[in-house]
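Researcher: Structure prediction, please.
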Amino acid sequence: MDIRDLKTFIYVVDNQSITVASEKLGVNQSTVTKRIYNMEEMLKGVLFNRKTRPLQLTSLGEKVYFKGCFILKQLESLENFHQQPDVVETKKIRIGIPQTLVDDLLDYILYESKKTELLYEVDISSGWGRSLIQQIQDEEIDLATFMIPSNISIPADLLFSKIGTLEFVVVCKKGEAYKYTNFEKCSKKGWILHPEGCCFRESLASLLYERNLGFYINREIFGLDLQLQSILKGEGLGIFPKPFFDKFSLKNNRLERVKLEDFPLYLNVGVVKSPSLGNEEARVFFDIVKKHYF
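Model: Predicted structure follows.
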């Protein structure tokens, strides 16, 4: 694999645009397109759904994206070896954060980890929940934090330490909650969700299918803040951890919670560690996440 192809692919995903990626990389659009086709030919699969705008990843594309980000970070660390002093290197603790929690947790974990020697050196990456679980099982990362919806089972072989539970809420544009007196009416409005791979989306789909209700996706959008902005425009409903909605509401009060008696889901919050990591490091990380949400 040509590393330029991988880097180009990641630029396209991050910017959701071939045009923007070509500008940032300083190459023409045909070169970007060619590099994407090189990747697909090597992987023998399609990375993007080309019928959508902006571009959306296929399930293969999601796996390649998160694995590719990990590979590029490792290459960057190799390139910087010559700048590092000849001392015994402190082992970095590799931490995974779900894509949905990055904006909320990244800076906080970096700040709090500096207060303890056990987590002073951390390397943080993000991914969808399923991807992070696989990385834990393959010992590519040491720790990960999760908010797992209550109707999704946790693999039995994971060393999952539960911290607590959070409310999972349905959100709509302010002044419209009265329209959605039950979950069926919500389903007919349609949803603003992350692309396939997100456990929040998987959980919602499972509940809808269980009740024989339609699963209507109005828009697929990366990032909770962008989803909330779309809901503000009346483009659909969303599901969010209650603390995220409360935090957004402090800056913008044009959204409201849809109070439903037939929406039973909640979120199990916890930390997963790899078998090779010490319990003390895991306990420190557990306490950091617990302090933030509870």
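Model: The first helix runs from residue 3 to 15.
Researcher: Thanks, that helps.
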